[in-house]
Amino acid sequence: MSLPTTTPAHSAEVPPQPGRAPRSPSSFLVRASRWSRLDTKASPYVYIAPFFVIFGIFGLFPLIYTGYVALNDWEVGADTHTFVGLDNFVKILSDNYFWNAVFNTIGIFVVSTIPQLLLALMLANALNKRMRGRMWLRMGVLVPNITSVAAVAILFSQLFARDFGLINWLLHFVGVSPIDWQAHKWTAWLAISTMVDWRWMGYNALIYLAAMQSIPKDIYESAALDGASSRRQFWSITVPMLRPTIIFTVIISTIGGFQLYAEPLLFTGGASAFLGGTLRQSQTVTMYLMEQFYNKFEYGDMAAVAWLLFFLILIFSGVNYLITARLESSGKRGGKK
User: What SUPFAM superfamilies does the database record attribute to this sequence (predicted)?
Assistant: First the structure.
């Protein structure tokens, strides 16, 4: 007697479905490889896309729209406006008050930025040394930066007050008569620059400190073995290796310096706050811009000033970059010699 032989159902070959080609393992590998390459190429763009989307909405669109407004004769609150081309730019560029604001902005920027970055560099070098409470000292230099600008302006207005200010009180010990700091151009620049330096010196010092800590310690040890003093190590090792960071802080300071607004506005105060004093002695470009909007109700002129300020920042940032890059390249050539 012979038993019937049957094939188990799970081992039976599945017949191909009509109209559908059987999948081979190689096709899955090819498809997975394509997805992997697509993921490698597209993922970086997907990750940075949110920034550019937000920038397009809140940065690029206002920039383009401001350019459109600048080409029109448009008063604040008006329902209609007239296309005037570049007339608003010609009007602003022929206004002496605009050039006075540009001169004040550049003057305050130079008086405040150069000592600010030098002092920040020296402060960072001091904080990079071993000392007790180093962490608290590093955190402490940021306190001025997190203080309200209004509180800072009130404090410095009291310090630089003509009649009862602390600065005039100290100066009388060396025979200096009381100075009306708000009444003159240079004294107002100096007071505002002091305020700006006090707020931003610690911020720049921490940037320099972070860059200093990335310099290998072996270089300093080798220099010390060769007999280089601490001062020589600072100027021959630290400063040359910080040049990319210095270029960054110079450009950032340029952008911030040309947008200076709150400090001179609050320092001047009073009814002529947007004018920077009765003689416009401390009016910056941003204050002149706000004057066009709030005092003159010229929407188109205000937009033209905004675009001119944008070009000024581009020009001076480019000039500062070229100067610092030239110093870097000359330093490298000097090092090779």
Answer: MalF N-terminal region-like, MetI-like
